[in-house]
């Protein structure tokens, strides 16, 4: 179902027709800009699914009665949409985002899987206050931790009789809250994480000792870093849903130049992109080290990709951009990350060498600050797609870290309850 409303820019007075594809979310943000003067007309929509009522709100624009619009924008909380433009041209677009993307889906059940993923993220958002409380109690080794775990999860399955069971219970927040929605491969391919436990125990112990002897890389510090990224993701995930839809579509099934997002903007997601890039850059030491053990039988035997990098000590001295060079698709623990990253764009953002056009949703940046005559471009959906892939890679690293934390308990003399 499609709902139309008309908004008048408070700056230039131009009228835009907003054509909303009503989906299955109760509410979602709307990020559009005035095609005439470029003013952000950000807002939101609330949808009463029972009565099919729709309530809009916009900043810098007033909703008006049916009027002749100069511009038009197609909106959706679930899918990429045709970018805004002249009403006379876009009124010819009669196929809705839903119908377009149903035809783009990879398999017959891709749309159903996409819907389940989003509903799971909504559930995680609702439960996040409780989840975060458990995480904080766990970090502080609180005597109230077990009680809170058993309030949230079934006591039958999480008796929390020892440290292993408590660790597993807290880990279920990640499994239920994030893996099941965004990285089911971790759950479907159990051999990936189970394989870590079968690696050389002497080398694994050396890895844990190395991490725990370096500030910022202790197992607990790396886990805290992951929890922070989770918290940041929950705040912004709804803006990234149309970009997530791309993962359920056939390759090259849409055009970034023509299609964009009406739930976000570059400024809205930029900080999350930067934070997840930096976090993953620190966390990469785990899959890289596991590859060293699996393929070269020594935690410090680095793949010779960078000059003067022959050990983990050398690796952590590298700049983040160079660390990403070790994300090889030929070695299992980095291949499973499936990282998509544009290090030059990240550096350009850091140097404030970026411009964004809100109407075309094009990001223009200078890849090399030493040569400011050369510029590159990337579209918002591409940028968000990279952010989501990096976040999903963090989920993979977190699963590896969970296994290392189990091993750490064993190396410290703890015995699992069978």
Which term fits the overall shape? Answer: globular
Going by helix content, strand content and strand pairing, the class is alpha+beta
pLDDT < 50 runs, ≥5 residues? none
Helix content: 40-55%
Quickly count the helices. Answer: 17
| Strand order in the sheet with the most strands | 6-1-2-7-9
Q: What attributes does this structure have?
A:
418 residues; alpha+beta; five-stranded mixed beta sheet; three-stranded antiparallel beta sheet
Task: Explain what you see.
The chain has two domains: 2-97, no CATH class; 110-411, no CATH class. Helix content is 47%, strand content 14%. It is built from 17 helices and 13 strands. It has a five-stranded mixed sheet. It has a three-stranded antiparallel sheet with strand order 3-4-5, with no helix packed on it. Helix 3 (110-139) packs across helix 9 (219-236) and helix 9 runs antiparallel to helix 11 (266-283). The longest helix is centred in the C-terminal third of the chain and has 32 residues, at 380-411. The protein is globular. 38% of the residues are buried.
List the helices and strands and how they pair.
Layout lengths: L1 E8 L5 E7 L5 E4 L12 E6 L4 E6 L2 E4 L6 E6 L4 E2 L2 E2 H4 L6 H8 L5 H30 L5 H8 L10 H20 L2 H4 L1 H5 L6 H12 L6 H18 L4 H5 L13 E2 L5 H18 L1 H12 L15 H6 L2 H4 L8 H4 L7 H8 L3 E4 L4 E4 L10 E4 H32 L7
Helix pairs in contact: 3-4, 3-5, 3-9, 5-17, 9-11, 9-17, 11-17
Short account of what is shown:
This protein has 418 residues and is an alpha+beta fold. It is built from 17 helices and 13 strands. The mean pLDDT is 93.
């Amino acid at each position: 179902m499609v709902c139309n409303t008309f908004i008048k820019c408070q700056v230039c007075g131009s009228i835009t027709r907003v054509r909303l594809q009503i989906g299955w979310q109760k509410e979602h943000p709307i990020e559009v800009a005035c095609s005439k003067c470029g003013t952000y007309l950000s807002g939101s929509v609330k949808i009463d699914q029972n009565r099919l009522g729709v309530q809009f709100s916009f900043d810098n624009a007033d909703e008006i009665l049916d009027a002749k619009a100069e511009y038009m924008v197609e909106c959706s909380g679930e899918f990429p949409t045709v970018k805004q433009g002249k009403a006379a041209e876009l009124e010819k677009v009669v196929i809705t985002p839903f119908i377009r993307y149903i035809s783009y889906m990879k398999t017959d059940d891709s749309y159903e899987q996409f819907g389940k993923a989003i509903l799971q993220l909504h559930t995680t958002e609702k439960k996040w206050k409780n989840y975060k409380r458990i995480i904080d109690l766990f970090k502080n080794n609180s005597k109230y931790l077990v009680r809170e775990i058993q309030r949230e999860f079934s006591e039958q399955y999480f008796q929390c009789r020892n440290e292993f069971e408590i660790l597993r219970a807290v880990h279920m927040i990640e499994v239920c809250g994030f893996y099941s929605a965004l990285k089911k491969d971790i759950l479907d391919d159990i051999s990936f994480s189970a394989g870590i436990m079968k690696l050389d125990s002497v080398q694994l112990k050396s890895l844990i000792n190395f991490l725990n002897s370096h500030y910022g890389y202790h197992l607990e510090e790396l886990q805290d870093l992951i929890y922070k990224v989770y918290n940041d993701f929950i705040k912004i995930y709804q803006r990234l849903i149309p970009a997530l839809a791309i993962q359920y579509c056939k390759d090259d099934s849409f055009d970034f130049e023509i299609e964009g997002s009406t739930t976000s903007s570059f400024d809205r997601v930029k900080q999350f992109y930067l934070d997840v890039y930096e976090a993953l850059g620190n966390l990469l030491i785990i899959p890289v080290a596991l590859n060293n053990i699996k393929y070269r039988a020594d935690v410090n035997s680095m793949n010779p990709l960078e000059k003067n990098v022959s050990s983990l000590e050398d690796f952590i001295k590298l700049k983040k951009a160079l660390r990403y060079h070790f994300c090889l698709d030929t070695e299992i623990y980095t291949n499973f990350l499936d990282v998509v990253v544009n290090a030059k764009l990240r550096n350009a953002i850091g140097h404030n060498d970026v411009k964004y056009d809100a109407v075309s949703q094009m990001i223009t940046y200078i890849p090399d600050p030493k040569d400011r005559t050369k510029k590159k471009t990337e579209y918002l959906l591409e940028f968000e797609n990279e952010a989501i892939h990096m976040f999903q890679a963090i989920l993979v690293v977190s699963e590896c870290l969970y296994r290392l934390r189990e091993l750490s308990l064993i190396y410290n003399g703890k015995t699992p309850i069978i």
